TrEMBL record, chain A:
Pathway: Lipid metabolism; Phospholipid metabolism; CDP-diacylglycerol biosynthesis; CDP-diacylglycerol from sn-glycerol 3-phosphate: step 1/3; Glycerolipid metabolism; triacylglycerol biosynthesis. It is a multi-pass membrane protein. It comes from Cricetulus griseus. Keywords: Acyltransferase, Endoplasmic reticulum, Lipid biosynthesis, Lipid metabolism, Membrane, Phospholipid biosynthesis, Phospholipid metabolism, Transferase, Transmembrane, Transmembrane helix. The gene is Gpat3. One of its GO terms (molecular function) is glycerol-3-phosphate O-acyltransferase activity. The lineage of its organism: Eukaryota, Metazoa, Chordata, Craniata, Vertebrata. PANTHER family: GLYCEROL-3-PHOSPHATE ACYLTRANSFERASE 3 (PTHR23063:SF10), PHOSPHOLIPID ACYLTRANSFERASE (PTHR23063). This is Glycerol-3-phosphate acyltransferase 3 isoform X3. One of its GO terms (biological process) is phospholipid biosynthetic process. It is found in: Endoplasmic reticulum membrane. The chain crosses the membrane at residues 84-103. SUPFAM superfamilies: Glycerol-3-phosphate (1)-acyltransferase. It holds the Pfam family Acyltransferase.
Automatic annotation (TrEMBL), chain B:
SUPFAM superfamilies: EF-hand (SSF47473). This is Calcineurin B homologous protein 2. Keywords: Calcium, Cell membrane, Cytoplasm, Lipoprotein, Membrane, Metal-binding, Myristate, Nucleus, Phosphoprotein, Protein transport, Repeat, Transport. One of its GO terms (molecular function) is calcium ion binding. Residues 111-146, 152-187 form the EF-hand domain. Its main location: membrane. It comes from Cricetulus griseus (Chinese hamster). It comes from the Eukaryota. It is found in: Cell membrane; Cytoplasm; Nucleus. Belongs to the calcineurin regulatory subunit family. CHP subfamily. GO terms for biological process: cellular response to calcium ion; positive regulation of calcineurin-NFAT signaling cascade; positive regulation of cell population proliferation; positive regulation of protein import into nucleus; positive regulation of transcription by RNA polymerase II; protein transport. PROSITE patterns: EF_HAND_1, EF_HAND_2.
Length: 360, 196
C-alpha cells in the first residue's frame, strides 16, 4: 500500500489518496482472485468435451467427426461400464462392511475391514477410470495422526482411501450416503456428526481429540478448506483441525484437467449430475503427494501452523496460495480484513505520532 | 478471429457501448464475461449485493462508495452498459486519443477531466458540486476506520480543505479540486492496464 500511496512514511493525507482505493476497488471488480477459483479451470487445448469448449469456437468438419466419435464412446460404451462398476463397488462396500461389523473386535476384524474398504474403493475408482500416481509413499499417514489435504471434490476421499484406510469426519447424511456411512462405521470407527453437533466446535474438537489419542485408531482425514476449490489454488485453511494436536500428515492432490474436470461446483451441479459428468469424461488422472509429517512448533499458534501446512501443500502440488476463505463464495467477508486495510492507511497518515498535526 | 464476433453479437447494444466507452472488442468481451460471472442468478443486471460479494471489494475501505458509483440517481440495478460506462473511466489513456480527437465529439470517458470527476463524486455524496468539510470528514473516516480519533481527523480535514479552498467558501469545488491535483499524473493513477 505504501508504494501505491507515493511511498513516504509519515506523509500527510492528500485528496488523491482516494485514487489508490478506488483503483484497487475497480481492479477487484474487473477481476478478483476468489471468484475465478470457483469455476472450472480453463484448458490450453481442447479435450473433445463440450463442457470445456469455452474458448475454442472454430470446429472443422473433421474435428466434429472426431468429437461425435468421442461422444459415442463416452456415452454408449464407457458410461454403462462405469455405472455397473460403481454399482458393484458400492453394494460390495455395504454388504462387506455390514458382514465385517458382525465380528467381535479383534485384529482379524481390523484386517478384514481394511481389506473390504480397499477393495471396494479400488473398484469405485476404476468405475471412474481413475489413474492415480502416488508419490513418496513412505510418508503415508500413520495411525493416530491427522491427514490434511486440499479439497476439489468428494472424489478426493475415494482417491485417498484407495491407498490406505482413514477415519472420515463428516456430517451424517440421509439417503444412499447415509446407508454407506452407517455401514462403514460398523466395520471401523469413523467420526460422523449430527448436523446439530457440527455447530458445537468444542464438541467436535473433543471427539476428534479422543480419536487421535487412541494410537490404534486410523488416521483422521480432514479437508481444512471446508469447501471445494477448482484445483488451481489453495485457500485459507480453517484453524479448527490444527488445534487438535497430534501429528499432521499433509497430502497434496492435483488433478490433470486434460482428461476430465474433477471440480465439483456445488452451486451449479447437484451430486448426481456431477457424478454423471465425471463418468462421461475421459478419465480422472491425478497425482497424490504424501509429505513429511508436521507438528505445531513452540510459540506457533493454530493459524500460523495452518498457514505453514497450506504453503507446503501449495508448493508441492504446484498450486497458487490464496489467503481468502473458501466460504466467501457463500458468505460475506469478515470485517477484520477491512480493518487491516484501515489500520495500514491510518498508520501512514497519522502513524508517526503527531508531527503531521503540529502545523499551527 | 472471425469466431469472436459471434460472441460479441451476444452483447446487447455492443456498437453503442463501444463508441461510448472506447473499449476494444476484446476488452468489451472480457468485461461482458465478467459481468455474467458476477450476475450469478443470470438476471441480466447487477444489484448492489452482487458487487458486495467480491471479497477484495468488500474489504476496501471505500468499497461502498465505489459500489454507489455504479448506481447513480438512486437506481438499484446496473445493466452491462452502465457497468462498462463506469469502468471506462479507468481505461488507460491512449496517446493518440488526445491528438486526433474530434473536438466536436463529447470527451471520452477516460479523459483526465472525467477521471477527476469520478474521484470527485466519491467525495461529493449529495452531488451538489462541492466537497463540504463534512463530506471530506466522512471519506477520511471510511479510510481510517476506528484507528484515528475525531480530533486528529478533524484537523487533517481542516488542513486539507484550507489548502485546496481558494474562494474561501469552506468547501472544495470541482475546479478547486482539479487545480490542487494539476501536477498529479492522474492518467496513470486511475488506469487499469488490463482494460486496454
Amino acid at each position: 500500500m505504501e508504494k501505491g500511496l507515493s511511498g513516504l512514511r509519515g506523509r500527510v493525507f492528500e485528496l488523491s489518496d482516494v485514487f489508490y482505493f478506488s483503483k484497487k476497488g475497480l481492479e477487484a471488480i474487473v477481476e478478483d482472485e476468489v471468484t475465478q477459483r470457483f469455476s472450472s479451470e480453463e484448458l490450453v487445448s481442447w479435450n473433445l468435451l463440450t463442457r470445456t469448449n469455452v474458448n475454442f469456437q472454430y470446429i472443422s468438419p473433421k474435428l466434429t467427426m472426431v468429437w461425435v466419435l468421442g461422444v459415442l464412446i463416452r456415452y454408449c460404451f464407457l458410461l454403462p461400464l462405469r455405472v455397473t462398476l460403481a454399482f458393484i463397488g458400492i453394494s460390495l462396500l455395504i454388504i462387506g462392511t455390514t458382514l465385517v461389523g458382525q465380528l467381535p473386535d479383534s485384529r482379524i476384524k481390523n484386517w478384514l475391514s481394511e481389506l473390504v474398504h480397499l477393495t471396494c474403493c479400488r473398484i469405485c475408482v476404476r468405475s471412474l477410470s481413475g489413474t492415480i500416481h502416488y508419490h513418496n509413499k513412505q510418508y503415508r499417514p500413520q495411525k493416530g495422526g491427522i491427514c490434511v489435504a486440499n479439497h476439489t471434490s468428494p472424489i478426493d476421499v475415494l482417491i485417498l482411501t484407495t491407498d490406505g484406510c482413514y477415519a472420515m469426519v463428516g456430517q451424517v447424511h440421509g439417503g444412499l450416503m447415509g446407508i454407506i456411512q452407517r455401514a462403514m462405521v460398523k466395520a471401523c470407527p469413523h467420526v460422523w456428526f449430527e448436523r446439530s453437533e457440527m455447530k458445537d466446535r468444542h464438541l467436535v474438537t473433543k471427539r476428534l481429540r479422543e480419536h487421535v489419542a487412541d494410537k490404534k485408531k486410523l488416521p483422521i482425514l480432514i479437508f481444512p478448506e471446508g469447501t471445494c476449490i477448482n484445483n488451481t489454488s489453495v485457500m485459507m485453511f480453517k484453524k479448527g483441525s490444527f488445534e487438535i494436536g497430534g501429528t499432521i500428515y499433509p497430502v497434496a492432490i492435483k488433478y490433470n484437467p486434460q482428461f476430465g474436470d474433477a471440480f465439483w461446483n456445488s452451486s451449479k451441479y447437484g451430486m448426481v449430475s456431477y457424478l454423471l459428468r465425471i463418468m462421461t469424461s475421459w478419465a480422472i488422472v491425478c497425482d497424490v503427494w504424501y509429505m513429511p509429517p508436521m507438528t505445531r512448533e513452540e510459540g506457533e499458534d493454530a493459524v500460523q501452523f495452518a498457514n505453514r501446512v497450506k504453503s507446503a501443500i501449495a508448493v508441492q502440488g504446484g498450486l497458487t496460495e490464496l489467503p481468502w476463505d473458501g466460504g466467501l463464495k457463500r458468505a460475506k467477508v469478515k470485517d477484520t480484513f477491512k480493518e487491516e486495510q484501515q489500520k495500514n492507511y491510518s498508520k501512514m497518515i497519522v502513524g508517526n505520532g503527531s508531527p503531521n498535526l503540529e502545523l499551527d | 478471429m472471425g469466431s469472436r464476433s459471434s460472441h460479441a453479437a451476444l452483447i446487447p447494444d455492443v456498437d453503442h457501448i463501444r463508441r461510448e466507452t472506447g473499449f476494444s472488442q476484446a476488452s468489451l468481451l472480457r468485461l461482458y464475461h465478467r459481468f455474467q460471472a458476477l450476475d450469478r442468478e443470470e438476471k441480466g443486471y447487477l444489484s448492489r449485493l452482487d458487487l458486495q460479494q467480491i471479497g477484495a471489494l468488500a474489504v476496501n475501505p471505500l468499497g461502498d462508495r465505489i459500489i454507489d458509483s455504479f448506481f447513480p440517481n438512486g437506481s438499484q440495478r446496473v445493466d452491462f452498459a452502465g457497468f462498462a460506462r463506469v469502468l471506462a473511466h479507468f481505461r488507460p489513456v491512449d496517446e493518440e486519443d488526445a491528438t486526433i480527437r474530434d473536438p466536436k465529439q463529447p470527451e471520452p470517458l477516460n479523459s483526465r477531466m472525467n477521471k477527476l470527476r469520478f474521484a470527485f463524486q466519491l467525495y461529493d455524496l449529495d452531488r451538489d458540486g462541492k466537497i463540504s468539510r463534512n463530506e471530506m470528514l466522512q471519506v477520511l473516516r471510511l479510510m481510517v476506520g476506528v484507528q484515528v480519533t475525531d480530533e486528529q481527523l478533524e484537523s487533517i480535514t481542516d488542513r486539507t480543505v484550507q489548502e485546496a479552498d481558494e474562494d474561501g467558501d469552506g468547501a472544495v469545488s470541482f475546479m478547486e479540486f482539479t487545480k490542487s491535483l494539476e501536477k498529479m499524473n492522474i492518467e496513470q493513477k486511475m488506469s487499469i492496464r488490463i482494460l486496454k
